[in-house]
Amino acid sequence: MPSTPHTSVLLIGASRGLGLAISRQYLRNGAHVVATVRGAVRTALHDVRDEFAGQLEIEHVDITIPNEVRGLRDRLANRRFELLFVNAGITNAEDETPRDVTVGDFSSLMITNALSPMRAVEELQPLVTQTGTVAVMSSGQGSIANNTRGGFELYRASKSALNQLMRSYAARSSGDPRTLLLMAPGWVKTDLGGPNAKLTIDESIPHLVKTVDDQHGHGGLQFLDYLGRTVPW
User: Fold this and answer.
1) Phi and psi for 135 in degrees, rounded to 5?
2) N or C: which end of the chain has fewer CB within 10 A?
3) Cβ atoms 233, 223 nearer than 8 A
4) SS3 139
5) What is the pTM of this model?
6) Domain total for the chain?
7) Cα–Cα distance measured from residue 138 to residue 159, given in angstroms and rounded to the nearest whole number
8) Full DSSP string of 152-187
9) Which of 25, 114, 140 is nearest to 9 (CA)?
């Protein structure tokens, strides 16, 4: 028997890092997972599919291209999932400021980290059961209240924008019974988090998945860290 209430998972962004680890954890827990990659080349997710034959399907989508997200929705139109988890993110130099950043780099950061994840939620949420969960990967650095030391100013701004857009979505969808989650995984050693991060993937992701599972059926919007603690907005 599956050890998760989210027995069917649609995971956006799973070719590496946190998304790859989330897919593996849900597969270990007995879920059927549809996970996405951007390009057509083989990724580490394909190795996971070989390990979990028949339990993992791979779809291709770049969430910064709206037509590709709509195409994914259309391909999965007859499917229903207990969990939609949107995992997408890029970063910039820690010391880069609004004075330094190019318009192109700032636009790319905001489109990838804030606009595109929410567009994916809007397009794909009809595929989620009424008792299901919609989760989006945020960051503790998106917390305005907790920002007492600065650094990563533009990345912080993009995640704060994501949080605000998710709050607006929740307010606009106040009658929707689905559970909505913004998740902060902690500072994790990945290509994005870098080698100086405090947590390994194995110290973060199993706890993060348990936190998501524990919120199944609760409804409403929460901003939580990987240990289930509320993160200040």
Assistant:
1) -120, 145
2) N
3) yes
4) coil
5) 0.95
6) 1
7) 6
8) SHHHHHHHHHHHHHHHHHHHHTTT--SEEEEEE--S
9) 25
